[in-house]
Amino acid sequence: xxxxxxxLVAGVLVAVVASGCLGGSGTxxxxxxxxxxxxxxEGAAIDTVISDESRILAMLNVGxxxxxxTDCDVLHIDAQQANANLPSPDTQITSDLxxxxxxxxxxxxxxxxxxxxxxxxxxxxxxxxxxxxxxxLAAANQYKSILGKQLLSAKSSxxxxxxxxxP
Length: 167
What we know:
The chain is mainly alpha-helical. The chain has 7 helices and no strands. The N and C termini lie far apart (69 Å).
């Protein structure tokens, strides 16, 4: 009898620990996402990447490729650093950000090649940046649905809303 009680108690303890580790209620998820963002400063990291993107898009929109290589390099580094903060406790945020950082990595590589004057690569970089922006916006919306607050700065949120709705 004592061994059955011990087995039952052990089983309950395993279930409690597992539910705490695997997510569970929305409250647990919101706490975990908040702690993840706070420890990783992911919102600030994404703001930095978006600032990199905006400088590149501004140059591309006026048809200038001069001096763009440095910005392409910086985007590549910043996207890699922000990607290092994944995974988040929420699978949707992780997925959206993973794709966004991947698109920005591809954009940076195309941008670096295009910096020598190859317009098709610069066009590809712009397309990849716009795809990343849609994914950043999706991640920010998911974050807001979980925590009820913004992941990104007002400047980045406004930028994304404008770019995604008017590419």
